[in-house]
Amino acid sequence: MSSAGTRVAVVTGSNKGIGYAAVMELCAKFDGTVYLTSRDEGRGRKAMEELEKLGLHPAYHQLDIDDESSVLKLRDFLVDTHGGLDVLVNNAAIIFPMMTPREEFVESIRKTIDTNFYHTMRACKILFPILRPHARVVHLTSDDGHLLKISGREPEAAALRQRFCAPDLTEPELCQLMEEFIEAAKNGDYYERGWPDSVKEREDTWPNEGYIVSKVGISALTRTHQRQFDQDPREDLTVNCVHPGYVVTDATYQKGEKTIQEGAEAACWLAMQPPSSSANNVPKGAYVWHDKQLVDWVNGPLPSIY
Ligand SMILES: NC(=O)c1ccc[n+]([C@@H]2O[C@H](COP(=O)([O-])OP(=O)(O)OC[C@H]3O[C@@H](n4cnc5c(N)ncnc54)[C@H](OP(=O)(O)O)[C@@H]3O)[C@@H](O)[C@H]2O)c1
């Protein structure tokens, strides 16, 4: 069955947490079909049932961003069924606690960078070609994804920050930075090389350094992606990254200051930006705070602690 012409939104990792709330908000306000996706079909179907009870009717598709074939299947399905994609919210991510046992530390960093950075980037590579003109892409980053979180020993940290915010940073150069961090984590000298060290900087128990670097990577990727969009023949493609706030979810061990609905608000606001025109100021390639402020990603300051 083809329903080409209907606008289509996809939220990754939306069986729970902020992604689930983003589906709720989009179901209520987006003019088109909204896909709830989950890596585990059972968890996804259960979330669908909950939303049906609330009178919301998203569509469903399985999506595990760690599995390339799963992303390819979603792409082919979207092309066959709808002819393209209009909104992509890259929400799926994992987090390991800071106090991850030493023997699991490097492995936890590798896994975090893989899912949160590499596999999000791969999903974009696969799905970006089917974006339609005026498509809106949103990457979930974090307060930990601000450039100033690259805060290891100086002047090494400053040199890393300089590379992350280079105005012509390419995807291979960004991947090279991720690999240098993983190598330094293996060697145990990551702080001396300028990378963050949670134990030195924080008193609470999460997240670990892998999460911070993965999210700085996503924020940097947003700028690189927008530059690609600016050269794209399709009209008015935008991508922004958003810090949702400190939100009560499983990722925060049910701690936080905001409900999942509040956490999804700024992401959905970005996802539903109108077509750009001389009469409006649609954000492009920006680092956006949960109160919808556009924050200077290079120099800061951050508007609040979380
Ligand atoms: N909560 C906060 O305070 C906070 C703060 C800053 C940034 N964020 C960011 O906001 C986003 C959502 O966080 P959250 O707090 O809602 O987290 P969450 O409750 O842990 O939900 C994460 C979602 O991502 C899914 N997921 C994980 N790996 C996946 C994969 N390989 N493929 C597809 N889906 C996958 C999970 O599926 P399963 O159920 O199968 O595990 C789950 O649906 C993340 O990007 C996070 O980094 C959150």
TrEMBL record:
It holds the Pfam family adh_short. InterPro entries: NAD(P)-bd_dom_sf, SDR_fam. Keywords: NADP, Oxidoreductase. The keyword NADP applies. Belongs to the short-chain dehydrogenases/reductases (SDR) family. GO terms for molecular function: carbonyl reductase (NADPH) activity. This is Carbonyl reductase.
